[in-house]
Fold these 2 entries.
Entry 1:
Amino acid sequence: MNSTIPVPAVVLRIRQVTADTSLLTIRTKFDHPVASLFLPGQFLQLSLPGAGEIPLSYCGSPSSEGDIELCIRHIGHVTTSLKAIVPGSPIGVRGPFGRGFPMSTYAGQDLLLVAGGLGMAPLRSLLLALLKQREFLGRLTLLYGVREIKSLLFLDELLELQREGMIELQVAADHPGHCLDGPPGCRIALLPALLDGLDIDPGHSCAALCGPPVVYPLLVSGLQLLGVPDGRIHLSMERRMKCGVGRCGHCAVGTRLCCVDGPVFSYAELAGLEGALV
Ligand SMILES: Cc1cc2nc3c(=O)[nH]c(=O)nc-3n(C[C@H](O)[C@H](O)[C@H](O)COP(=O)(O)OP(=O)(O)OC[C@H]3O[C@@H](n4cnc5c(N)ncnc54)[C@H](O)[C@@H]3O)c2cc1C
Ligand code: FES
């Protein structure tokens, strides 16, 4: 496979998820690795003719049909240009790139997914992949923190999974007052507070984190306090990246490049690297 050349794709569906975020479903070639052979936490490069190319995390699960789900926050040139696309619009995709979450180590474990803001996009991919092998897993808990309730992504889906007993869900919003229309049990708290006193079996738990780098130190120390070993804490360092292809050096952490060696690392790998979590 030559991942330097974009594979043609067309837009199938666009769903508005929040005021500034959409879920895009695109279809590329049947059984193409860019759609069928990725791990949650990996990313692709999406090119929009006339606008440019951007890295995006996979938000859905692998599909042999060639379908790919992407969650896009419209904030800059390319992402805003993507607002104008309609079903049938042509785009290009390259990938998958990077290292994803270590799914093969999760069998028989309790899983704790911790998402901050748009970090829910790659963790939705992980959640959907885990649900496909639900019978081989123990407890599946999602802790999800946002600034405001109106920024919650995929809330209906998550509440449905909670009702069906497939996941345990806890939601927090940073600011007081914003929980008035929030889901049942929503707390006004910062994301790391959801770890306080959490009932887990640390010897049989793995944690997967994706969110703004500023919350990682508190999340990691909270998980350590609960007894989760460093090698079972996996975090995505995607926010450190710029070019995504190992050229700009923006994502360097010690001797590692997040875009090439990650974006997912275990905390055991990062612990000795200066500046890894700042
Ligand atoms: C591995 C990886 C995975 C990612 N996954 C996702 C994902 O799943 N979903 C997602 O939405 N994003 C994701 N991103 C981020 C996404 O790639 C960027 O949002 C995108 O590249 C921005 O491109 P752009 O052309 O729209 O923005 P640009 O135009 O390049 O703007 C970039 C920044 O400048 C700011 N900016 C732009 N114009 C203005 C202006 N006029 N005034 C003030 N500020 C301005 C924007 O707010 C933005 O912060 C990911 C990034 C990486 C590296
Ligand atoms: S993001 Fe440019 S080198 Fe990694």
Note: Residues 103-270 form a domain with the Rossmann fold fold (CATH 3.40.50.80).
Entry 2:
Amino acid sequence: MEVVGMVSVVLIALSAASLWALILKVHCRVTTGICKSKRRLDGKTAIVTGANTGIGKETAKDLAWRGARVILACRDMRRAAMAKDDIINSTGNKQVIIQHLDLSSLESVRKFSHRILESEKRLDILVNNAAGSNLPNILSDDGIQIEMQTNHFGPFLLTILLLDLLKKTAPSRIVVVSSFVHKYAIFNVDTLHTTAQSSGIFRYCNAKLANILFVKELAKRLEGSGIIVNAAHPGIVRTEFCRRFPSVFKFFVELMISTLFKNAQEGAQTSIHVAVSEDVEGITGAYFVDCKEVQASKQARDMDLAKKLWDSSTKLVKLTDEELKVLKKMK
Ligand SMILES: NC(=O)c1ccc[n+]([C@@H]2O[C@H](COP(=O)([O-])OP(=O)(O)OC[C@H]3O[C@@H](n4cnc5c(N)ncnc54)[C@H](OP(=O)(O)O)[C@@H]3O)[C@@H](O)[C@H]2O)c1
């Protein structure tokens, strides 16, 4: 009798878990936003960072399919070359270029920007997609905590150095890929760049909050320039994102994500929507989820915090007064 009771409990628990999974799957299917814009991008140029895999690769592929010249900004040139071949083969667009960029090095960001400014006549779309999670808590060669540099300070410097070209090409767009986890940040601007800030997963949450605060402050400073800048959360997406997680945890998380949540193509839809859609014209400083504008957390809308982060970021990435002058010429 006791065994029968145990079996019943297990069966009820399994049924409840299956029902819950089914509801979650249906919810994900129904709510997944798809970019409906058919806009062509012939003659336009786009940069996508971290475009050798995952959401970045699917974003780059879509922009190439629309006819854009697409620059894949990647740190691993072998994987970048493989992504380039795949994108050219599947879209027929040969205007796909690879350029080296390591966002965890200020020197690499400067070299990349320099090459772009030398070689490109225009820049219509910049997608700051690349990010790393669960990186070791160490300082980079620039003395900045490496995850924060990869996910916020590097993209910050990159964007400022490319503003002049974006302005010359206006109307142009900047997309910063953030995450819903910005809501769980434990944020202190003064220690953000150090190894003393919050541990593990909270560093990633902090970086994703920094992404939105950057978008808010930059949008304010770019008012009237013809450049719009918005943040996007892609959803929960099966990519290589969990690669540095402990293997058992990684196995279960990846299994759950691939069964219940988005693939990389679905995950790229919000970035694509924000980069190309006619519906986004005139919208700046906003946060998008599933191709819809939604409100970011209260902290992400704190403009005093955004200004404080801006000031500290300009100092940490060593932007010169001359380089910052570009923002004064924006109106
Ligand atoms: N997947 C999700 O569920 C999810 C959810 C919310 C937000 N996001 C965001 O979506 C974006 C894309 O993530 P993903 O899921 O596609 O992850 P992914 O598959 O791990 O791809 C990340 C990309 O960023 C690149 N990258 C990492 N560190 C870099 C560095 N120092 N310099 C240059 N490139 C670097 C990676 O290059 P390598 O291959 O060389 O490492 C890779 O191309 C990220 O901003 C992430 O925060 C993802």
Note: Residues 49-50, 52-56, 74-76, 79, 101-104, 129-132, 150, 177, 179, 233-234, 236-237, 239-241 surround NAP (CB under 6 Å).
